[in-house]
Amino acid sequence: MHTQAPASLPRRRLLAGSASALAAAGLASFHQGAAAQSAAPAAAKPLPGYAGWKNADAVIVHSSTTIETRRGAFGTSVITPSDQLYVRNNLPTPPESIVADRDAWQVQVSGVKEPRRLSVRELKAMGLETVTMVLQCSGNGRGFFPSKPSGTPWTVGAAGCVVWSGVPVRDVARALGGVADGMKYMTGTGGEVLPAGIDPKTVIVERSVPLEAMQDALLAWEMNGEPIPLAHGGPLRLIVPGYTGVNNIKYIGQLAFTDKESEARIMSHGYRISPPGGKGDPSQPSVQQMSVKSWINGPLPEDGELAPGRVQIHGVAFGGMHAVKGVEVSVDGGKTWQAARLVGPDMGRYAWRQFVLQADLPRGSHTLASRATDAQGNVQPEQREENQAGYNNSSWADHAVTVKVA
Ligand SMILES: Nc1nc2c(c(=O)[nH]1)N[C@H]1C(S)=C(S)[C@@H](COP(=O)(O)O)O[C@H]1N2
Ligand SMILES: [Mo]
Question: Where in 70-111 does DSSP place strands (E)?
Fold first, then answer.
């Protein structure tokens, strides 16, 4: 059983890379979030203005740029309501003015035979597709690493299951004559205005994914039935199903098919699986495709003592790139397992499934765990893979909860 480090604990150090570059340039306000976090009192932090519409009872505000969904708030109806969905920004959120005239937003498309700037209005005429997808930060579950990596100590709530609508990237590429020869990556660049006087490469949000990821990718303008809120990347966001949050570029300004990976720091050194004590570098694996994972959302220790008898143990399970085949639940900390039942609609292989196991729990303490298997037979591992920055935690043991029945 693991407990979350209080969000008020001082950070051991400020975010490496971008924050220090900004600090060096004297742009203190640019990493207000990190600074506020290290100095903050224990009281709950208020929602930042751009996310003021979020349901304050359903989220944990870590900083002005990091907001997590409470584990008990996920519910059992598959889709994460927008006002409960986590937020993670590496740079300050752009001004509301960028969503004043959404259809006028433009994205530069290059690495195609006929490169062009396209407005959202033009994109809307090129194609339409809808995908339900788990959006999950690479660092979700970092709070369970005993090594206390620097960065937001997310437990389970830097994730949600979201419906996106937009134009398939492959339709856009086709309309522009097709992908140019020799391209190996799809590279998306955030449309944030960068501070003057520092090397853009050190702060820009730009990520490359393998070219084949374009097959299911969208340039999306709608989320959960509404224009994408500014906090989640409106007016236009690149959606790369199955890939971790950072690869899903908000307020996308450029979409390029490239022969090399981006040289932005967030690609070359950030989001790399580094050995404990090490530093990120381009030789290490990049955090990209998600793998099979599940966790229980109820009952939880915060519900207090349970009455003896029947409980409905429920949670979410997803496969990353593959559909979920099944979920097992243990009520004895992983000694024995029983097949859970998948409940609710199947929204496709990139969505999560919800599961339930009915159990009769006698008086005492019970450690509840879940373990998912994907359609390829990959089983959620017991242990996390140790790494310096606390990425990709899919350990079922870390996600177990202990409840008391009295
Ligand atoms: N332009 C841009 N895109 C971005 C980011 C960002 O800071 N700027 N953050 C990334 C990260 S690290 C994550 S986890 C997700 C968070 O998406 P959300 O805020 O909609 O939950 O967006 C990704 N896309
Ligand atoms: Mo993230």
Answer: 87-88, 106-110
